[in-house]
Amino acid sequence: xxxxxxxxLLATGCAATPVERxxxxxxxxxxxxxxxxxxxxxxxxxxDSLGDNGPEARARWRAGSQRFLERARAAKPQGEDEIVTxxxxxxxxxxxxxxxEHAFWQWDVDQMYxxxxxxLQLVNTHPLGDERGRRSxxxxxxxxxxxIDRYVADLREGxxxxxxxxxxxxxxxxxxxxxxLAKPDAEWPLAKAGPVAPVRRAFETLAxxxxxxxxxxxxxxxxxxxxxxxxxxxxIRLQTSLELTPQELHEIGLAELASIEKEMRAIAKTDDLKAxxxxxxADRANFASSREEYLEGFRRILRKxxxxxxxxxxxxxxxxxxxxxxxxxxxxxxxxxxxNRAPEDGSRLGIFYANCHxxxxxxxxxxxxxxxxxxxxxxxxxxALLVELRGLPAFRRxxxxxxxxxxxxxxxxxxxxxxxxxxxxxERFGMLTYQAWRACRLVVDTGIHALGWSRERSIEFFxxxxxxxxxxxxxxxDRYIIWPGQALAYKVGQREIQSLRAKAEKALGxxxxxxxxxxxxxxxxxxxxxxxxxxxxxxxxxxVRP
Length: 546
Fold this sequence. Notes:
This protein is mostly helical. It contains 24 helices and 3 strands. The protein is globular.
């Protein structure tokens, strides 16, 4: 499950290097300080703990990160792999320490993955098949009220400093809490696994605070907060691994959108894309008729993709995946789909979660691109292969750069066209819609957080350029508001992977083999984009034959 500790390595006659010991110690620190993450990836040692939050926990995290950073800077790598590992570890620790300056915890009200969501989701990842697991789960639920008390204290601290969440997020979370509280205990997702009462009590505390005491902000952008401009620049570095300005990203988004819309006009056979989008969205035949039909449609698409994978990839993951609906308690406020990885021991499958809320608003023509992105050859293929890379330190196998992860998944949406996944021009138009969507994200995310755009202007921009339902659009915009910068990662990462592929094709000519290129991109884990470029350029140089 994890990298071998030093004693085990010595017992096999293979002494750990200083960098390996550093990585092993760092991983132990991460698991101890992030016990719910540890449980999710199959480490049961801390399954009776929710982990700490609040100022004492942050101080402990800072002190630990600083110690590891000092060790990383002093370490002497042995070979190229350790050079890459230290580069990644040092950059990660520097970013972790830098985020304290921006105190994001002071306004962390999140309708997608806040505590009102993740506490209910624990039933999906906590081991409940034995008595030990059931006891430890009960302890976690009993600890939740104190966790919420510290969470509320952080939000009060934000109010004192003029750093508060938006009204949109506050109202959405309060509504989620009240909806759940209105249900009898037997209808809670937790009911068959542990005591509902402590969680109900904590939900009452949080709902009352948000409704009666909290004073949210009306402006949606990060720049509206004290220090918001610097905080947004930090989020750009965190999510893209590059030094880009908001204006640069905004202009890249506009240029990408113009290029994609040119492709869309060729399929639509008209210059009036808005009218074409209106026409296909008015046709009921283009939408799902039921939750079951929607889910089965994804399964059919993915069976077809699975059959094609060996032609395009020289290595495929051992562990599989399944398609499941997003749970009803959170589907209304969730995005169109997402992926949850399997634990390292392979004890359960990866999960492609599809949003089945109001299936009659879910376009069929977008389904193939969405399935490819979230499952194969997108997130599941990349992440399941990553988990199998036992030669990498655990922190590299289990986490990584957002721009790499999301860039790869977006790259595969285009790749699927080469693979023959899209059966009709309308499905191809759906793929381009999703490409345009990610270009729009660059425009809107920077618009909201750096250029003063309102929520309403952002929604209208999406409506003007995308064949998505209003439900999807509103949920997307609200996601960008609460997660500044995350939406930038997709297009930035895709552009880098496409650029590296083009460079390899030009340099290698007839020697270029796409499956081998994919193997090289995937075999190092979710590295930062500068590291990926360095690795691929060295791979190209090794392939060139005189």
